[in-house]
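Fold Annotation — chain and its backbone

Fields — amino acid sequence, structure tokens

___
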Amino acid sequence: MTAAAQIHATRRWIMLALGVFAQSSSAVIVHGAPFLLPALTERGMPLATAGLLVAMPTVGLVCTLIAWGYAVDRVGERTVLVAGPVVMCVAGVAATMVTGYAALGALLFVAGMGAGSTNGASGRVIVGWFPPHQRGLAMGIRQTAQPLGVAIGALTIPAVAAAHGFSTAILVPAVMAGVAAVGCGFGIIDPPRPSAAGNTHPDNPYRGDTTLWRIHAVSVLLVIPQATVWTFALLWLHRDAGLSLPVAGAVVTGTQLLGAAGRIGAGVWSDRVGSRLRPLRTVAVAAAISMCALAIASWLHWWWAALPILAVASIVTVADNGLAFTAVAEIAGPYWSGRGLGIQNTGQNLASAAIAPVFGALITAAGFPTTYLVTAVIATAAIPLVPLARHGRTTIS
């Protein structure tokens, strides 16, 4: 009997919903922290200092992703999905009680450490409980947690910070994390794992096989056009395309929603073709083409074409996330998937963190068309790195 057959179908979807909520709370603390910038700068804090402060959750996240993955492999998904949100909740509540910026930064760092727990654990629950023909869909839904978290942060954190102060605004993700910890404590069941046949150290899937390393490399390369579009779209639309900030903001919000839908669509596609890697290669090709088209339209000032191309690029450049995430979990197996997903997320987050300073300097020196062309070249480099699709469906249980 497969793992998926051991529980009622409704329970699987409940656990998926809990995982999405837990991951959304992490996204609010990590990606919502920059929404504190207006409140911090209005208090006279230099922008560079404020930027460092709101980056602390991301630093904490990156430092602990692999460690949390190891914990998933050793103690199970439920324990990690409770412990991490508890850390977020406690650190967030404590942050509302401090007055010094150093203490606030330290607590934001700790909250980011807790946020790292939900990345691998929620993905492992999906791969462990959902049958192969539904995993792509389920993982695509799970991958919408990030844009949902960003949207929640955008709607709540600036308003709360303006009305009650930046420290109080941190209660938003703290309360969410507390609710997530309780929900996961009651609702998550660790997927069963096949017997290791007396071997307490199952074979390392990274040894003697480059498949996982190649998927990690592809994901790092493809996250660069994704992060470039997300980071600079608002500035490009306002400064180069001439849209007002409210209109540009509405366009960016719309592209975020399209991107979330694209993640689900890519997952369904992979379920139907029975492969994660073949669609991943197609997405890499599409990302290179869309970013090249965006560079041409921006260079020629064809705004009538640039805006639709931006919408397409916003869908394509995020479609690889769920495909690669699912492939890593399936190929790594039940005793290594936590660490595999930790490595996957660490690489992507490190690459994303470098986008703002590195590509910001490139935009200043050479402009948006050149920058978009560079991202197209980077996406092209990912195409030959995608491993050949394996025969049949790779399963984890």
Summary: Residues 7 and 276 are 25 Å apart (CA to CA). DSSP finds 18 helices and no strands in the chain. The radius of gyration is 21 Å. Residues 337-366 form the longest helix (30 residues).
